């Protein structure tokens, strides 16, 4: 029995240690953001202040970049769920002729790092005259998240029993009502998983807007934060840390909001148990 | 031909249409263009920006003669291997495994701490780590307090630095995946083995690992693909440097296209990046034995 | 039967939607940024004029002050209804030119005036990004006042003029008199060859140890053109082998000069005479060196441009009243003191009108107003660069500016970058190789070898020669 106790203690120690290592880089951001004289090194603030946050949040340019960022990332998440959900319905419910090649293509596309090959994407935007358009950028990001979204949502939808829907039909509900009132509520875990996954992939993405958006006043927060790196010579660490924290918040809120549904999402909607 | 099945076909088309339009324009479109432009000498500035010409396989010949391309492939593989396949997977599994059957509060705290790294936006992750590893950053402050010499981490160990940052950012994903799949390991078998006197290690190797094999493979592919596309983190932390020491393929592509103004060449590198994705994808589909 | 109809419907539907969708998307540009419509410079009605330049940190602070305090108010006197918008790009020097190229490609994003480094003018002009100004210049009396050598920088290979220069420059060695004197180097310092520089740096290192950076040269990709020009070319043009042979019209891809220039850079870092890599490879390296270290007396020698004085005057971003007494500005010697003994590089910036600007006439009016000797004098008083106007050069106010005598004298032996297509690409090769040498990834010899391979790839095998 002693052996197990030791093992148990050891694993607690290891976990605590790993946890400590994980929190270290973040600790600095948190402390520096409320420090009036923030430096690069981790120190307990000698003087607490909220000035850094006030400075960030009272700057209209910063607010604008946050709104633009939210427009892109939330827009993308909602579109992936909506468009992906629509596509998932017939794929889940009907025995379609070309379903198999269809799903294989989707699965295949899931793996292509499309947001990494920005050169041809940029050329496409030039060709279609879409450069500098926030809507088009959102749509591109939507497409990049769609294969994964469709795949996941289809798997989640498979788990929603058809009987429920049939009884709704009997009651005279249209297919739309059915989708909205019967299927969607049962799929909340899947929707949350896909939504937050999509959101977190694009929220911190600097590359895509940096290449596709040209006007400085259309840059989302992921690009404007880069100005702090640039002005490294005389950085105001406190403000930078405050900016980072504010910037992290939407992702945290979204995560907390959907956390309880997530664990089901991470078994890949049963996709791994093949 | 009954009207019901026609209605179903039409409805299916209608439902699938929006996603296929989006995928056609913004997913398949760029891929087709990749093939097209990688055989041209299109440039960002200079005469070739106006009149590009088809140059056949020139870009690819140049690529395979370019020592920087070989370096980039090596760096990409190292980055993938260290940060994704080894780092995130092993650490994620370790965390999930150790957290099994632990005190709920403790489990939750560790979980939140690890997940904090995951929900932190990539660009902020980069910034956190630049600050953490800097000359006068937290890590060096700790080293100094132990009387050790400080190290310019981002310049002395650049690749390791970006790998560690990526592990920090990505491990939570693997951890959550493995937590979900470890829940599926039947408790009774584990207990029976324990009574038979099997050690923890034996149980892990003989019982747990085979059960979660599917998750490991799937997770590995997903993590590989996410890591393959990492640009923001490396660009913001090191810009691919110093020299070429963290120049992975996405960074190399960016440099060729948008710093050296050679869009055609950059596109050819994109094609290689896509090909790696294709290979991983085929492997993914095979290993999953997909049921559709 | 059913299937066929389905297919046809699918195809037709897809096609129609594809067309509709693309059309809708293209038009969606305007409502894309609905949150910031009013501030959106591209939706310029004809009374908006946007000017793009590089900023970030304190980059171009002199230019910004000059535009805000002098040119725009004067312009608004005559054109009160015009709203002049500054639209700076906060990127590193290395990213600026690519970002400008991206901006200039479309009518939606092109500003009305852009500041162009003269080495990009040829390239951007042949890409069709810039408007030829010949017709406008013909009916303008200001052009004759511009110095002829500076004019060359804005004339592209097609013979047309693509910008109006607002400054030119020279480069040399900034040094802290006290530090050098304490290290036993005689002041005023007049290095006769490269060894003198290295010996002075070594002396500083011996005297001050880690407290003082002996020698600073831009050495990274992030500092972009500054690495090519202020460092590599300042060295290379002190050897007998330039980058380009104008007679043969060929790039020199193999020469002793190339190897020696890389070797010099390597020596500085090998011997620990340079700054920390984390400082010098940074995009803002120049601010660190000349706004922090030099005023704090922690940098002994810096190879850089004369515009650095713009940091230190009373309206600069790092005012330093004593700089005139504390510093010296020495001419860069040639490798072995070979003729003509000293060397320098000159470039400069110009105001250009993008081909896709929607307000070219107004932009031209603005440029004309900004490009007078009187206005230019004001700029130089702020920005501290060499004026492209003869008249300004003769103005006592200008001549009295600290270090202008030295800086102007460097013009005598100065060199210009090859004004040929592909120089920008060659320059990025140089930057990358210098950074690799500095970080010890490759040896100077390997760098010279790779230079040959990569430049050949860029310019073509028929346009290279060896020496």
Q: Looking at the chains present, what oligomeric state does this protein adopt?
A: heterotrimer
Strand order in the largest sheet of chain C? 2-1-3-13-4
Q: Secondary-structure element sequence of chain A?
A: HHHHHHHHHHHHH
Largest beta-sheet characterization of chain C = 5 strands, mixed
By CATH, the architecture of the largest domain in chain C is named 3-Layer(aba) Sandwich
Chain pair sharing the greatest interface: A-B, 92 and 102 residues
The CATH class of the largest domain in chain C: Alpha Beta
* Percentage of residues in helical conformation of chain A: over 70%
Q: Give the termini separation of chain A.
A: 38 Å
Give me the count of strands of chain C.
Answer: 15
Q: What portion of residues of chain A belong to β-strands?
A: under 5%
List keywords for this structure.
heterotrimer, A: 274 residues, mainly alpha, MetI-like fold, 0% strand, globular, disordered C terminus, B: 292 residues, 13 helices
Describe this structure as you would to a colleague.
The complex is a heterotrimer of chains A (274), B (292) and C (467). Chain A is mainly α and 274 residues long. Chain A contains 13 helices and no strands. Chain A is 73% helix and 0% strand. Chain A starts with a helix and ends in a 9-residue tail after the last helix. Chain B has 13 helices and no strands. In chain B, helix 2 packs across helix 13 (263-288) and helix 4 crosses helix 8. In chain B, 76% of the residues lie in helices and 0% in strands. Chain B has helices spanning 3-37, 58-65, 67-99, 104-119, 122-133, 138-145, 153-156, 158-182, 187-195, 200-228, 232-237, 249-259, 263-288. Chain B is globular. Chain B has one domain (68-288): MetI-like (MetI-like fold, Orthogonal Bundle), CATH 1.10.3720.10. The model of chain B has no long low-confidence stretch (mean pLDDT 87). Chain B has 292 residues and is mainly alpha-helical. With 467 residues, chain C is α/β, with parallel strands linked by helices. Chain C has 2 domains: 44-169 and 347-415, Periplasmic binding protein-like II (D-Maltodextrin-Binding Protein, domain 2, 3-Layer(aba) Sandwich); 171-346 and 422-466, D-Maltodextrin-Binding Protein, domain 2 (3-Layer(aba) Sandwich), CATH 3.40.190. Chain C is 46% helix and 14% strand. Chain C has helices at 2-27, 29-32, 61-78, 93-104, 118-126, 134-138, 148-151, 177-182, 194-208, 225-236, 256-270, 277-280, 285-293, 309-312, 323-326, 360-370, 373-383, 390-393, 396-399, 404-409, 423-438, 444-459, and strands at residues 48-52, 83-86, 113-117, 164-168, 171-176, 213-216, 244-245, 250-254, 299-305, 327-330, 332-333, 342-346, 348-352, 414-416, 464-466. In chain C, helix 3 (61-78) runs antiparallel to helix 17, helix 10 packs across helix 11 and helix 11 crosses helix 22. The longest helix of chain C is centred in the first third of the chain and has 26 residues, at 2-27. Chain C starts with a helix and ends with a strand. The model of chain C is unreliable at 1-44 (pLDDT under 50). Classes of the chains: A mainly alpha (274), B mainly alpha (292), C alpha/beta (467). Chains in contact: A-B, A-C, B-C. Chains A and B meet through helix 1, helix 3, helix 4, helix 5 and helix 6 of A and helix 1, helix 3, helix 4, helix 5 and helix 6 of B.
């Amino acid at each position: 029995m002693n052996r197990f106790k030791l093992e148990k203690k050891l694993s607690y120690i290891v976990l605590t240690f790993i946890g400590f290592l994980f929190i270290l880089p973040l600790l600095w951001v948190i402390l520096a953001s409320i420090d009036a004289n923030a430096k690069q090194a981790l120190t307990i603030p000698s003087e607490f202040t909220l000035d850094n946050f006030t400075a960030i949040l009272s700057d209209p340019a910063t607010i604008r970049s946050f709104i633009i960022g939210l427009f892109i990332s939330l827009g993308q998440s909602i579109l992936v769920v909506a468009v992906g959900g629509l596509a998932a319905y017939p794929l889940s419910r009907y025995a379609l002729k070309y379903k198999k090649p269809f799903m294989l293509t989707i699965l295949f596309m899931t793996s292509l790092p499309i947001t990494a090959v920005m050169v041809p994407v940029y050329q496409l935007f030039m060709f279609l005259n879409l450069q500098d358009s926030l809507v088009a950028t959102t749509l591109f990001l939507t497409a990049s998240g769609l294969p994964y979204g469709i795949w996941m949502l289809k798997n989640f939808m498979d788990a929603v029993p058809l009987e429920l829907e049939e009884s709704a039909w009997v009651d005279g509900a249209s297919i739309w009502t059915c989708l909205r009132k019967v299927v969607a509520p049962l799929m909340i875990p899947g929707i949350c998983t896909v939504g937050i996954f999509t959101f977190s992939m694009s929220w911190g993405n600097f590359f895509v807007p940096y290449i596709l958006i040209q006007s400085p006043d259309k840059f989302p927060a992921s690009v404007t934060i880069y100005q702090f790196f640039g002005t490294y010579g005389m950085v105001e660490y406190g403000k930078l840390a405050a900016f980072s924290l504010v910037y992290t918040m939407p992702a945290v809120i979204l995560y907390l909001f959907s956390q309880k549904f997530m664990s089901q999402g991470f078994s890949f909607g049963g996709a791994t148990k093949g | 031909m009954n009207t019901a099945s026609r209605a179903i076909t039409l409805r299916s088309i209608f439902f699938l249409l929006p996603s296929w339009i989006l995928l056609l324009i913004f997913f398949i479109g760029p891929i087709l263009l990749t093939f097209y432009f990688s055989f041209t000498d299109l440039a960002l500035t200079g005469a070739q920006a106006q009149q590009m010409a088809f140059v056949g396989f020139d870009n690819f010949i140049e690529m395979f003669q370019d020592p920087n391309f070989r370096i980039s492939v090596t760096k990409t593989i190292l980055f993938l291997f260290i940060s994704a396949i080894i780092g995130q997977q092993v650490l994620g599994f370790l965390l999930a495994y150790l957290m099994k059957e632990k005190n709920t509060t403790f489990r939750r705290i560790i979980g939140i701490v690890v997940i904090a790294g995951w929900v932190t936006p990539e660009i902020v992750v980069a910034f956190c780590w630049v600050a953490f590893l800097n000359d006068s950053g937290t890590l060096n402050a700790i080293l100094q307090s132990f009387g050790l010499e400080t190290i310019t981490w981002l310049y002395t160990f650049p690749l390791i630095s970006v790998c560690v940052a990526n592990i920090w950012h990505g491990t939570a994903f693997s951890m959550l995946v493995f937590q979900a799949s470890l829940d599926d390991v039947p408790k009774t078998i584990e207990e029976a083995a324990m009574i038979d006197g099997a050690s923890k290690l034996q149980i892990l190797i003989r019982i747990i690992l085979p059960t979660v094999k599917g998750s490991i493979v799937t997770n590995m592919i997903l993590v590989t693909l996410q890591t393959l596309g990492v640009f923001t983190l490396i660009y913001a932390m090191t810009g691919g440097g110093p020299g070429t020491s963290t120049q992975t393929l996405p960074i190399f592509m960016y440099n060729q296209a948008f710093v050296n103004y050679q869009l055609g060449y950059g596109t050819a590198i994109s094609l290689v990046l896509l090909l790696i994705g294709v290979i991983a994808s085929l492997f993914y589909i095979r290993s999953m034995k997909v049921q559709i | 039967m059913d299937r066929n109809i389905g297919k046809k419907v699918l195809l037709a539907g897809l096609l129609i939607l594809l067309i509709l969708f693309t059309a809708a998307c293209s038009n969606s540009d305007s409502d894309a940024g609905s949150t910031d419509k009013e501030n959106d410079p591209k939706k310029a009605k004809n009374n908006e004029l946007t000017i793009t330049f590089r900023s970030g940190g304190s980059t171009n602070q002199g230019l910004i002050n000059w535009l805000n305090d002098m040119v725009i108010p004067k312009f608004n006197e005559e054109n009160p209804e015009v709203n002049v918008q500054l639209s700076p790009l906060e990127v590193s020097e290395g990213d600026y030119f690519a970002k400008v190229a991206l901006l200039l490609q479309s009518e939606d994003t092109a500003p009305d005036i852009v500041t162009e480094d003269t080495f990009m003018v040829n390239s951007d002009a042949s890409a069709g990004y810039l408007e030829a100004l010949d017709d406008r210049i013909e009916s303008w009396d200001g052009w004759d006042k511009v110095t002829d050598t500076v004019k060359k920088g804005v004339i592209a290979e097609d013979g047309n003029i693509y910008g109006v220069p607002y400054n030119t420059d020279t480069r040399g060695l900034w040094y802290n008199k006290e530090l050098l004197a304490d290290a036993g180097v005689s002041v005023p310092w007049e290095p006769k060859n490269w060894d003198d520089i290295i010996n002075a740096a070594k002396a500083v290192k011996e005297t001050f140890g880690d407290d003082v950076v002996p020698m600073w040269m831009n050495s990274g990709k992030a500092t972009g053109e500054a690495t090519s020009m202020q460092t590599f070319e300042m060295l290379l043009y002190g050897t007998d082998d330039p980058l380009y042979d104008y007679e043969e019209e060929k790039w020199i891809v193999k020469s002793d000069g190339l190897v020696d220039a890389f070797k010099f850079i390597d020596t500085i870092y090998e011997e620990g005479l340079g700054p920390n890599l984390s400082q010098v490879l940074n995009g803002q390296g120049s601010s660190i060196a000349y706004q922090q270290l030099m005023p704090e007396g922690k940098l002994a020698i810096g190879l850089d441009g004369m515009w650095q004085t713009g940091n230190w005057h009373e309206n600069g971003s790092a005012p330093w009243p004593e700089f005139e007494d504390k510093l010296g500005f020495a001419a860069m010697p040639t490798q072995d003191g070979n003729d003509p003994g000293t060397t320098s590089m000159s470039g400069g910036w110009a105001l250009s009108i993008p081909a896709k600007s929607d307000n070219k006439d107004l932009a031209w009016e603005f440029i004309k107003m900004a490009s007078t000797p009187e206005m230019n004098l004001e700029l130089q008083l702020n920005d501290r660069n060499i004026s492209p106007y003869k008249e300004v050069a003769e103005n006592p106010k200008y001549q009295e500016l600290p270090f202008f005598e030295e800086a102007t004298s460097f013009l005598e032996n100065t060199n210009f970058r090859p004004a040929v297509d592909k120089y920008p690409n060659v320059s990025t090769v140089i930057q990358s190789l210098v950074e690799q040498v500095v970080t010890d990834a490759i040896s100077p010899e390997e760098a010279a070898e790779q230079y040959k391979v990569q430049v050949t790839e860029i310019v073509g095998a028929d346009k290279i020669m060896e020496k």
